[in-house]
Fold this sequence. Notes:
Elements lengths: L3 H7 L1 H13 L7 H12 L10 H10 L2 H15 L8 H16 L1
Amino acid sequence: MIQFEQLYKEVLPVLQSKMDEINYYEYDGIxxxxxxxxxxxxxxxxxxxEELRLYEIVETIYSVKPSEIVSYFQIQQFRSxxxxxxxxxxxxxxxxxxxxxxxxx
Length: 105
């Protein structure tokens, strides 16, 4: 059975070409893995690996717009980010408590 890791190795030159295009438009911070993960999680999320043909994979990679990748990862960052991870439970309760006391005034 084919896995995404095997396909990644096959389409690495295509990913590199897309990466060159993205760099040309000065989108910094996007890696080959970011492009690949975007395709897996966004474009192919409802497809099985076995159903994908090589030409479909190449077409998908070339059709990805840099702004789509940036938007997708920004949204993922907002969804997964724990804004209060550096605060203890007690400190969080104190913050919430003080907020409700101030709003009652």
